[in-house]
Specification:
The structure is a single chain. This protein is α/β, with parallel strands linked by helices and 162 residues long. The chain has helices spanning 30-36, 58-70, 85-95, 117-130, and strands at 3-9, 14-16, 23-25, 43-51, 75-79, 100-104, 134-139, 142-145, 150-152, 157-159. It has a six-stranded mixed β-sheet, with helices on both faces. Strand 6, helix 4 (117-130) and strand 7 (134-139) form a beta-alpha-beta unit. The longest helix is centred in the last third of the chain and has 14 residues, at 117-130. It comes from Niabella pedocola. This is Asparaginase. Residues 3-155 form the L-asparaginase N-terminal domain.
């Protein structure tokens, strides 16, 4: 069975406006990333939203949880903004027990060329296939269980909370 990929936005999919210097959303870059990474794993992709995770609402998280619950696939990857990724992971872990769900993102937009997004996406797809049911965050080549992860804003990497 294919891996379900849900797109929610975050730095992963941001574009740079050269006129005003702001980051914004246009289209997802996921298809290009899968092609660049030479992915051969069957995937089913659905865009749920394109938002910065700092602007993600409780209703947005409910939609993500609902879509995960309704998904036929037991292996799910979610692209997500890094600032509140651990919050969404915790909500999913409380609600969904019969699937392997891996959230991932990027600290640098894909369009900048030196992004960590491609590596994180590949790691998330691999972890979704190999980890037991549960909810995880995949960043920087590591995976973390939901409820035991945070973004360290000083170092710019994810780490365990205990």
């Amino acid at each position: 069975m294919a891996i379900r990929i849900f797109i929610t936005g975050g730095t992963f999919d941001k574009e740079y406006n050269m006129l005003n210097g702001e980051l914004y959303f246009k289209d997802t870059h996921l298809h290009d990333l899968l092609e660049k990474g030479r992915n051969t794993v069957p995937v089913e992709i659905r865009t749920l939203m394109m938002v910065d995770s700092l602007e993600m609402t409780d209703e947005d998280r409910e939609l993500i949880a609902y879509q995960c619950e309704q998904s036929e696939e037991e292996q799910i990857v979610i692209t997500h903004g890094t600032d509140t990724m651990s919050v969404t992971a915790q909500l999913l872990a409380e609600r969904i027990k019969d699937k392997t769900i891996v959230l991932t993102g990027a600290m640098i937009p894909i369009k900048f060329g030196s992004s960590d997004g491609l590596f994180n996406l590949g790691s998330a797809i691999a972890f979704a296939q190999s980890l037991p049911h549960g909810v995880y965050v995949a960043m920087n080549g590591r995976y973390f269980k939901a409820g035991n992860v945070r973004k360290n804003r000083q170092t710019g990497v994810f780490e365990e909370t205990v």
